[in-house]
């Protein structure tokens, strides 16, 4: 599914209101941290609304923490913006899911109409979906370890494109400096930044920074630059590689995540910026097992590995007669059977798997066994293990990944006028949501959020 706020950036005037609508099956939040310490989806407060202030809960002045709390499909959240500036916001459940709101002085002309934003949103979503499809088409099944009496087969649990993006750096003013930058997450705690520039002045000192906000509109209120490094070129061209060991998104778990919007690079000399460019990661994820059907022989082992940074999944076998546990219940978190011999009469469960974690079972009884992700069972995340009797002469089985086609549509938006609207949730509703919060916290997959800007009358 596509994974983002659509459009990624919206420009409004002071006094205008934005309405976000969740159009995906996955829950999300709309959260402004305003440069203050952030929290992620594991925090107990992640699902609760946080008013901007007690007197004006849905009026944002750029300095408070404001959050929608948990929003499910069809629900909306609105904020009225009073202070000009650049503001970056996020979903606390999904690291990297970021958007940008630029607030102009009241009465300033708008760069786009609502109808044009709707078109931009569709285009951005299509790019994300294409990136996911391309990644799936090129995905290779993990290596199989083969021996005489048993083999090990590997299955991806969810899948996300490689975290790498390239951006152009354009001259600022008449500097004549330009180039490009590539940012790649090379390990859970390390990102590599490669910069290539031309038009430089030999012998002059330059520095490179990453900033939250927009290359066109400037740095987001409340956030400090991430200083990457400095250099003094001996010619007009220069290339360098830097390592970054801090978060590149507003929200993080245990790994660095490239944000889909709200991050840009500046190249400076002294206090002057000479080149700049937005760094945007075309994002999305696959909620599925790859391959969805794995065929093995009795005595073989299957290893499932979580390969999606933006999501958490389970690998769960529910025996006949047992209802599928609701994710968020204690039973859904109970890890049972890892590295054991599969028993089709018993419940087997990995518990929530985060990126890089694995779950393994050895199968000694022929049959076809169904596995499910408890986080995403309602949207069809099922996989199958087909166990054949082991012949006297074993031939290695090659499992192929079936091409996954995914389509996501963005419902048409409507001009809406809301003033100081709050999201009212009954105590009973909220308790029910909290009971399932862990499922929501880990259910980190692709959504489409349509931002609707409205002018006050």
Automatic annotation (TrEMBL):
<dbReference type="GO" id="GO:0005507">
    <property type="term" value="F:copper ion binding"/>
</dbReference>
<keyword id="KW-0472">Membrane</keyword>
<keyword id="KW-0479">Metal-binding</keyword>
<dbReference type="InterPro" id="IPR052721">
    <property type="entry name" value="ET_Amicyanin"/>
</dbReference>
<keyword id="KW-1133">Transmembrane helix</keyword>
<keyword id="KW-0812">Transmembrane</keyword>
<dbReference type="Pfam" id="PF00127">
    <property type="entry name" value="Copper-bind"/>
</dbReference>
<dbReference type="InterPro" id="IPR008972">
    <property type="entry name" value="Cupredoxin"/>
</dbReference>
<protein>
    <recommendedName>
        <fullName>Blue (type 1) copper domain-containing protein</fullName>
    </recommendedName>
</protein>
<dbReference type="InterPro" id="IPR000923">
    <property type="entry name" value="BlueCu_1"/>
</dbReference>
<feature type="transmembrane region" description="Helical">
    <location>
        <begin position="430"/>
        <end position="453"/>
    </location>
</feature>
<feature type="domain" description="Blue (type 1) copper">
    <location>
        <begin position="283"/>
        <end position="387"/>
    </location>
</feature>
<dbReference type="GO" id="GO:0009055">
    <property type="term" value="F:electron transfer activity"/>
</dbReference>
<feature type="domain" description="Blue (type 1) copper">
    <location>
        <begin position="3"/>
        <end position="104"/>
    </location>
</feature>
<keyword id="KW-0186">Copper</keyword>
């Amino acid at each position: 599914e596509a994974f983002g706020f659509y459009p990624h950036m919206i420009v409004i005037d002071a006094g205008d209101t934005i309405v976000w609508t969740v159009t995906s099956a996955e829950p999300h939040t709309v959260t402004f941290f305003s440069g203050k310490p952030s929290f992620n989806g594991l925090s107990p407060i992640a699902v609760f609304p946080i008013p901007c202030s007690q007197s004006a809960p849905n009026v944002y002045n750029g300095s408070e923490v404001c959050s929608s709390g948990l929003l499910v499909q069809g629900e909306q959240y609105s904020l009225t913006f009073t202070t000009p500036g650049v503001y970056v916001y996020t979903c606390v459940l999904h690291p990297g899911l970021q958007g940008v709101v630029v607030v102009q002085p009241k009465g300033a002309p708008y760069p786009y109409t609502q109808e044009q934003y709707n078109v931009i949103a569709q285009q951005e979503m299509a790019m994300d979906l294409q990136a996911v499809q391309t990644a799936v088409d090129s995905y290779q099944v993990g290596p199989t370890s083969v021996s005489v009496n048993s083999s090990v087969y590997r299955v991806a649990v969810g899948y996300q494109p490689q975290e790498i993006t390239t951006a152009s750096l354009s001259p600022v003013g008449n500097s004549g400096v330009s180039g490009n930058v590539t940012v790649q997450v090379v390990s859970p705690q390390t990102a590599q930044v490669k910069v290539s520039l031309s038009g430089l002045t030999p012998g002059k000192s330059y520095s490179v920074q990453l900033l939250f906000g927009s290359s066109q509109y400037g740095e987001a209120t409340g956030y400090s630059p991430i200083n990457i490094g400095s250099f003094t070129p001996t010619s007009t061209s220069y290339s360098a590689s830097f390592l970054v060991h801090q978060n590149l998104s507003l929200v993080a778990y245990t790994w660095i995540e490239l944000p889909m919007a709200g991050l840009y690079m500046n190249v400076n000399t002294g206090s002057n910026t000479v080149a700049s460019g937005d760094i945007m990661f075309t994002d999305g994820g696959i909620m599925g097992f790859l391959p969805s059907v794995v065929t093995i022989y009795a005595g073989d082992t299957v290893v499932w590995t979580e390969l999606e940074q933006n999501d958490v999944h389970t690998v769960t076998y529910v025996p006949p007669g047992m209802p599928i546990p609701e994710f968020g219940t204690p039973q859904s978190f109970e890890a049972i059977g890892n590295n054991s011999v599969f028993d089709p009469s018993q419940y087997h469960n990995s518990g929530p798997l985060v990126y890089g974690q694995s779950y393994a079972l050895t199968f000694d009884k022929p049959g076809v066994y169904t596995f499910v992700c408890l986080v995403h069972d309602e949207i069809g995340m099922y996989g199958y293990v087909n166990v054949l009797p082991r012949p006297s002469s074993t031939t290695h089985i090659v499992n192929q990944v079936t091409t996954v086609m995914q389509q996501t549509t963005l419902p048409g938006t409507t001009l809406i006028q809301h003033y100081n609207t709050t999201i009212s949730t009954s105590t009973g509703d909220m308790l029910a949501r909290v009971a399932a919060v862990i499922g929501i916290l880990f259910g980190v997959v692709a959504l489409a959020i349509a931002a609707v800007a409205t002018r006050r009358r």
